[in-house]
Amino acid sequence: MEETLKTSTEDIRIYAKALRLSHLRNNCGDIIHKAQIDKPSYLDFIMEILKAETASRQQNDLVRRMRQAKLPRNCDLDRFDFNHSAGITKPQLKQLRELVWLDQMYNLIFMGPAGTGKTFMAAGLVRDAVMRGYRAQFITMDSLINILRMKDMTSSAMSAYSGILKCNLIAIDDIMLMPMKKEESVAFFNLINALHEKASVIITTNKAPTEWVEVLQDEVLATALLDRLLFHCDVVKLVGSSYRMENRSGFLAKNKNKEDQ
Fold first, then answer.
1. Considering the entire predicted model, what is its pTM?
2. Cα pseudo-dihedral 103, 107, 112, 114, rounded to 10
3. Maximum separation of any 2 CA atoms in the chain, in Å
């Protein structure tokens, strides 16, 4: 009897693998053991297997999309410090977190000095989108430029570029921070043009749109880029001092305090 059960269990694992039912394949023994104890009806037994398989797939999909999002650490918007950052209210952030703008393919621009929460909000909204089932990614402008520069030369860069084009939401951090070469500016415009009205884009920048011409070194290109980004867009202007500077911690200071104690 025990040998027959063992053989049947292995057969179930083989069929589960063929059907890509990973939860059933990996937990077959435990599922059968629980059923022998609980003695559910045939209908309830099948229902529990399907529910568990669905939950497992949803969790695996979330983990995969969260990994692809490439988020910085600690970007949960539940922890946003409204006492420090000025320019956005609790009701406004709550409205953004509902993601209606994402369904309507609107863009967002967070503009302001360093340390005022631009990156935190952009990454936090990407995190919210991933948790809600969207494909979203956070990327720095520097990393994006490198992908644009290398996409026709390496398969890894082309794969990264293709992944961006498949996103429902892409957040680009610190754009227009450094001057761009002509070919980089054109490649960046081509990406934004490809995403236009097919996905939402979040931009963080410390430069006003009027200053983008200087960075791109091309007034026509800057105008065309802004035309696509601002067509359906909300601009959030943040003000204040740097949160990181006010809350910085020093390694040497901590160790000195330990020595004094």
1. 0.77
2. 70
3. 80
